[in-house]
Amino acid sequence: MALKRSLGEKLFDASNVFLLFLLSCTTLYPFFYVLMASVSDPNWIVKTRGLILWPEGVTFEAYLMVFRNPSIYTGYVNSTFIVVIGTSLNILMTSLGAYALSRQNVMWKNPIMFGIVFTMFFNGGLIPTFLLVNDLGLMNSRWALILPVAMSSYNLIIMRTAFMGVPVSLEESAKLDGANDFTVLFRIVLPLSMPVVAVMILFYGVAHWNSWFNALIYIRARDLYPLQLILREILIINSTESMMSGVGGLDKMPVGETIKYATIIVATLPILCLYPMLQKYFVKGIMIGAIKG
Fold it and tell me: How many CB atoms lie within 10 A of CB 186?
């Protein structure tokens, strides 16, 4: 039988719902503003100040100009390569390290773990990292954006904690049947830890997709620019001229403003489409990696 809730409890729940609704609106409105501005009349956008709740003079000219820009396609290809290959390497390296450090009979496990945690507080810095990447011959290569960040210490700790929650009896029975450590990892431990693996894919994938600083440091050829670096040029350096070739009868300044908004939407949309597919694993994976072991 359900307990009768007091008036104070109902008011508390209503207040929570109201505050969370306000927080959601505060979080979602910037994206909504950019979306509405990207499909509105450019001259109206320049004159408008304050909130935008609906588009005015709906036009998709800004999106047409964005997709006519070959740099956008090149950026998509480069970013997709970095995300797919980089995230795959991240999951492989993190899984191998987490599995080794989660086993009970590993020699010097605690000192190794201390060394990994130490790197979260102290690192070599930008200049030594740049010199290392240069000496390895990775400059002006997409691998310069993948190999130096092949594993995150924080994600390794989360995955290690999740692996420690897998019963040791499963590993022992598998080894009695002749399985080696790679078989145990890829056939038993990883399938039982799919929520935390999904969280790692989300963490690493979003980090790769949003990364622009490493590309700014290591990449010189424009045909290797990831999408976020092209977006930075458009937003900060204001390089929209190449997209507005052939625009007649329009003031280029307001058209350039809507191009910026459209480019933000184009660059953000893939991650927004990816997140709902992994969202159901997110809370479960974080909790498993945070409290077990």
Answer: 13
Q: How many angstroms separate the CA atoms of 278 and 281, rounded? A: 6
Domains of the chain: total: 2
> CB-based contacts of 118: which residues, under 8 Å, 6+ apart?
none
Residue 3 falls within a domain, yes or no? no
180 backbone dihedrals φ, ψ, rounded to 5°? -95, -175
Tokens of 145: 């954006």
- Whether 211 maps to a domain, the answer reads yes
pLDDT tens for each residue of 42-77: 888 777 777 888 888 888 888 888 888 888 889 999
Distance CA 184, CA 25 (A): 46
Return the CATH number at 186: 1.10.3720.10
User: For residue 52, what are the domain limits?
Assistant: 12-59
User: Residue 85 and residue 71: Cα distance in Å, rounded?
Assistant: 21
- Provide the whole-model pTM: 0.80
Helix (H) or strand (E) holding 138: none
